[in-house]
Write the structure tokens for this entry.
Amino acid sequence: MNESILITGANIGLGKEVARQLALKKETKRIILFCRNQVKAESAKKDLEVQTGKKIFEIIIGDVSDANSVRKAIEKVKDPIDAVILNAGGMVGKTAAKITPSGMNELAATNILGHVILVEELVKRDKLKKAVLFVSAEAVPGVKALGMKPVAMKTSSVDDFAAVLDGSYFGNKFDVTQAYGYVKYAGTMWALSMARKYPDLKFIVVSPGNTKGTLAPNNLPPAMKFMLKYLMMPVVFPLMGGMIHKLEVGAKRFVDGISEERYKSGIFYASKEGKLSGDMVDQSTFYTDLKNTIFQDNADRAIHRFIK
């Protein structure tokens, strides 16, 4: 049972819904909303208290794309935490390719940098007791029906992963929709590496699937945003079957991932091959690179090139 949980990106969308669902579980005693903006965090906290009838929510302010911000935020964690859900991230938007002070581009920094620092600092301080969930996406194994090709690294070497993280891997054609899958792959492999490094902790990777009510479409280029928001999501996906679900369903994947024993450490769970919704399965059964421990450790080493 997880009595205390920290959720990054918890003031809106999936993060907020996960907080709501966890608060309704009898064993939950404390939920930390890790957010960038104090005003938005306070608003989410009040709303969650009204929705759940519980006053178990705390706020910690930190920006997961900023290493120093995360380190300062960690100082505010006084008591041990059972589980951490690394939810903040996404496609970021127009500034995705911009290089941050860490040397990572903004897309990689927002999805990976602060999350790695957060988890590793909590472990170092003996403040993390049970589970870590890293949020990934079906963009990693790809979805053939939608023309989404699986991530296909040249060698999955340390240099390859580092090039993904600073954007140089993509040359002059930085396509955020393509780069997103590669960044999520790097973060996924880091989490799988951590599962072997810390066998007493549960490190699990979960995709929320194609979830309504998230900000994902808003971060895409205008033409793609229009197509996804006004054509694909409301019309095409529902007709295809197994391609979209409600916010509550996507959030429940995270809740179940950290709570249920059937979801094991060291595994990336997402939709069945070729789907974006429905039951979650082990992605390594059809995307075998996930099993490669050398690739996992290479991702870990590449990420730490950017952590000073």
